[in-house]
User: Fold this.
Amino acid sequence: MQTSNANIYALGDCAEFEGQVKAYLQPTLISAAALGKTLLGEATKVTLLNMMVKVKTPNYPIQIGGKTDSSSVSRWNLDVQSQGIVAKGYDSADNMVGFVVTQDCTQQAFSLLRQL
Assistant:
């Protein structure tokens, strides 16, 4: 959370974390808790685990978890069904690193998150 200036910290949509902007609620909450401890004298590192983002669209719900960027995912496995899509992203070592689920398949999101 500390910027290049030792007395300035960044939090939220304006903050870059390890080279990436994490403009969602969960990273902001985790970062705020660590920043609060740090400002009170207990230097606390921010640790962001695999997270899930829920895209709040009423007609086409989407949930995204883990890493889904092109630098992390080497290949995608797509299961397209009438009730939705389950897309699993794999790295170069063939480990699942992220996923995207839509419509009724969003019910699988938490079990997929646990697999990461």
User: Anything to note?
Assistant: The chain has a mean pLDDT of 89. The CA atoms of residues 11 and 90 lie 30 Å apart. Strands lie at 16-17, 20-21, 52-55, 62-66, 75-81, 84-90, 96-102. Residues 25-39 form the longest helix (15 residues).
